[in-house]
Amino acid sequence: MAFYQRKFIYKNLKRKITTIILCVAIFPLIFLGETIYYRFAKTYEEKIEDQIKYRTRSLSDAVEVFLRERTAILATIVDTRSFDDLKQQENLARMFKVISRRTDGLIDLGVIDSAGQHLAYSGPYNLKGLKYFQQAWFNEVMTKGKYISNVYMGYRQLPHFVIAVRGYSNGRGWILRATVDSDIFNQLVRTAQTGMSGDAYIINKNGIYQTAPRFSGKILGKSNIPLTLFGQGTTVAEKIKANGKAKHVAGTWLKNNEWLLVITQDVGDEKGGLLTTRNTEIIIIVFGCLAIIMTTFFAMRMIFNHLEEVDKGISELNDQLIQSDKMAALGKMATGIAHEINNPLAIIGEKAGWMRDLLDEEKFQESENFKEYEQSVDKIEEHVERARKITHNMLGFARRMEHRLDDVDINNVLNQTLELLQSHAQTSNIKISKDFQSELPIIASDQSQLQQVFLNLINNAIDAVEKDGLIEVKTRKKDSQIVVAIKDNGPGIDEEHLKKVFDPFFTTKETGKGTGLGLSVSYNIIKKLGGIIKAESKLSEGAVFSIKLPIKIPDKK
Ligand SMILES: Nc1ncnc2c1ncn2[C@@H]1O[C@H](COP(=O)(O)OP(=O)(O)OP(=O)(O)O)[C@@H](O)[C@H]1O
Ligand SMILES: [Mg+2]
Predict the structure, then answer these.
(1) Is residue 323 over pLDDT 80?
(2) Is there a contact between 61 and 261 (Cβ–Cβ < 8 Å)?
(3) Does residue 331 share a domain with residue 199?
(4) Residues within 6 Å of ligand 1 by CB
(5) Axis-axis angle for helices 272-359, 518-528 (nearest 10)
(6) Residues 452 and 389 in one domain
(7) What residue numbers bound the domain in which 539 lies?
(8) pLDDT digit string (tens) for 169-193?
């Protein structure tokens, strides 16, 4: 499988694994977040409802206690003092003074006889002498014994209400009544008006405000809250306001179901904490997801880069193996061909020599075609020589080259090679620069064969550059290898040719100029020395041939 095909497979695999990991990690995170939030929101909402219920219940208790306390004060007076005693104006005034010192909210105190006549009065108004016999509340106190009125304006044009308690004197009923300042009462209820939107107020069973609401409406105005909403105990309902926002409305009946205490609060106001939690959770999930995505991509990239690297190594090794196979097969064929051609070549060469000898004879020299004969024989001999060189090379290529191991200093071998080529390069104005790593280890290798390889490579580079160019020869020690790189700024090698440069007889040079054996011979030599030779190039960007040789330390002699 070609490397690029595997690259495609890896890309696919990488995409699949990344998607699976992301799905497996991110979906549960979001699901978990949502579930936790859902549970939390439910509990939170229950808590909100409980809280408003609790607040309503405590306030209703406080209001009931307020009323009960003041009623109890009046009842105690009625039970402990006689009618005759209290109907005396100064006695009543003294009593009012004592009460006012002990409790707040009472404005006045009055004694009414069984005929409804206001006999004594202590307070800011002149109510003495007024008759209450006709009034509904008078009869109610007389029959029930205790009475608390609704809030009304009265003479003072200030909202207030009345508490009255009945006593008995000589078998006849009489009444002690007091007025409650509704301001004090208002203050008590107002303590439950919390937050930006919280309201608390009391309405009577006709929907009339007994205390001032915080929003929309005033004391003694009519409330539009539907009273049927509220049953026994404390009821909580959710209502949508005119502006579309939801609010909680909680209510408890008090004063024997005559008054309704109402507490309202915007749901949004109460859910502030929930919203903060939601935002925090979203931030945590978003950051969590980002961290997972980044880690996954990073890890995948690392793993697959490593895999591709390993694969590239394997692929290169594979290429080398294929190349070796090709060489072996071609080698065998080449030996056969070389032998077959060598014999006819020898005969042609011998016959050409014989023809030259004949041409020396006088009669031939006198022939008018003598010059053409001589040139033809020259050409035959030249081409026989060239063919012999090729067969010689072919045999050399195919032969199992036995190599001897010398102590080789690679820099030295390169220097010697460059000396051989320097003048040839200079005539074409080609500069050869050296970048050698000093103190390269001496290795056990075959000096003359290495020289042949370097010669081939540098010659190729000179041929490629043609003239006015630069060839760079570099040596480095890398791990357990010595790397030699020969780089030129010639025309480079296109992708198609790059695959074939090490093939025997591959040449782009014109016939007669190159045999196409230089690189394949070099390849064989380097392989036998345990190294690797590689060509890298892009068209019009020059070429780099690099050789990696194992650092084999020579045995001590
Ligand atoms: N440095 C280089 N720049 C561009 N092409 C190169 C370079 N080296 C080799 N080649 C290409 O590789 C081919 C094969 O090279 P190789 O050395 O095997 O044979 P050759 O140089 O053509 O012939 P010979 O080595 O027998 O003179 C060359 O013909 C050339 O096309
Ligand atoms: Mg060559």
Answers:
(1) no
(2) no
(3) no
(4) 456, 460-461, 464, 488, 490, 493, 501, 506-509, 514-520, 543
(5) 120
(6) no
(7) 406-550
(8) 888 999 999 999 888 888 989 888 8
